[in-house]
Design a protein that fits this description.
It contains twelve helices and twelve strands. The chain is α/β, with parallel strands linked by helices. The structure holds nicotinamide-adenine-dinucleotide (NAD), 3-isopropylmalic acid (IPM) and manganese (II) ion (MN). Nicotinamide-adenine-dinucleotide binds next to α4.
Length: 357
């Protein structure tokens, strides 16, 4: 079992250290760890946010654990050299098109949600976000118009096969969740009232639904979805959406649960078995430059990303559950940091998880 660790920038190395301690306790047989530079660190050490040896390491791995990238000192570099290209480059070079972003209420955390406890209590949803297309990967640039004004542009598009393959992932996820108490529902979120891209998305999702008569499909415009997510998040089971909308809605969902420092994610490729093997696992948050180096970052999203890695790429359900239980118990015992109104630091939260494992 080869796991590539890419800590990255800002709080990335701080939270990765805690995930590594969890890995040490698990003592997986035959585990080999590699470490590579990504992001601003990659640029500063090797002249590129995704150095060639990092990419080779990723391709050779069974799974990738990714911290975060983003460095304010790199924000004026040309776009191809910016830290964010590391994560975008890995997702596209490895064909990791299916982003699973679960948001579930942890027992005892209801009072810390940005929502009222009785509203927050019911949160148990999975955002299935497409990751290789949309406005992220279309033609982009800045051009000068005839009258001398500069104009920026980013083309939004989806090909039907790109929509179909992510729709299958969403439907299968809804079926899988139904087996363990899920609602068997999928809500596809788009902006079909305005965007052609979204109309095609909706048409293809409806076509694909024929293969999944047991899943209750609905559609929602993204503006309404943003509102419904705070009005009544308990109505959602699987949310299927595109790259941009999924990015925004997942940060929003994190505050419904209580903190962006709690939400983990998996990026998976073509399916083998249920979700495929090679995957990249990372918190949904970024490098948090405002708190980097202060030992304040919440490492739980990182540790929960490791749990997703154990489950989805290594097939080690028992180990994944062991880690997730220890995280839930840590929160239930009131051990959390400033992001949730507490006072525990990064290492202290890591210690608490290790003790509970
Ligand atoms: P961010 O997610 O880094 O931070 C947003 C806010 O949430 C900040 O106030 C931060 O302190 C807080 N926060 C985030 N993670 C936290 C944690 N684990 N514990 C406690 N608080 C936490 O988003 P941003 O500030 O918009 O972006 C910062 C940089 O990160 C940018 O360069 C951006 O491009 C990058 N970014 C990278 C990724 C990624 O690597 N996948 C994701 C999002 C943003
Ligand atoms: C995320 C991030 C990335 C995205 C950025 C850093 C490219 O916000 O993983 O959510 O937009 O996908
Ligand atoms: Mn994001």
């Amino acid at each position: 079992m080869k796991i590539a660790l890419f800590p990255g920038d800002g709080i990335g190395p701080e939270i990765m250290e805690q995930a590594r301690r969890v890995l040490d306790v698990l003592a997986l047989p035959g585990l080999v760890l590699f470490e590579g530079d990504v992001g601003g660190v990659g640029y500063k050490r090797q002249g590129h946010p995704l150095p060639q040896d990092t990419l080779e390491m990723a391709k050779a791995a069974d799974a990738i654990l990714f911290g975060a990238v983003g460095d304010p000192e790199c924000d004026s570099l040309e776009r191809d050299l910016r830290p964010e290209q590391a994560i975008l480059g890995l997702r596209s070079a490895l064909g990791l098109f299916a982003n699973l972003r679960p948001a579930t209420m942890f027992p005892g955390l209801e009072d810390l949600s940005a929502l009222r406890p009785e509203v927050a209590r019911a949160i148990d949803l999975l955002i299935v976000r497409e990751l290789n297309g949309d406005v992220y990967f279309g033609d982009k640039g800045t051009r000068v118009l005839d009258d001398g004004r500069r104009q920026g542009f980013d083309i939004m598009s989806y090909a039907e096969d790109e929509v179909r393959r992510i729709a299958h992932v969403g439907f299968r996820a809804a079926q899988g969740r139904a087996k363990s108490g899920g609602k068997g529902r999928m809500c596809s979120v788009d902006k079909a009232n305005v965007l052609e891209t979204s109309q095609l998305w909706r048409d293809v999702v409806i076509d694909t639904a024929v293969e999944y008569p047991d899943v209750e499909l609905s559609h929602m415009y993204v503006d309404n979805a943003a509102m419904q997510l705070v009005r009544d998040p308990g109505q959602f089971d699987v949310i299927l959406t595109g790259n941009l909308f999924g990015d925004i809605l997942s940060d929003q969902a994190s505050m419904c649960v209580g903190s962006i420092g709690l939400l983990a994610s998996a990026a998976m490729g073509e399916t083998q078995g249920e979700f495929g093997t090679l995957g990249l696992f990372e918190p949904i948050h970024g490098s948090a430059p405002d708190i980097a180096g202060q030992g304040k970052a919440n490492p739980l999203a990182m540790i929960l990303s490791l749990a997703m890695l154990l489950r989805h790429s290594l097939g080690r359900e028992d180990d994944a559950a062991r880690v997730e239980k220890a995280v839930a118990k840590t929160l239930e015992d009131g051990i959390f940091g400033g992001d949730l109104g507490g006072s525990a630091g990064t290492a202290e939260i890591g210690d608490a998880v290790l003790q509970r494992m």
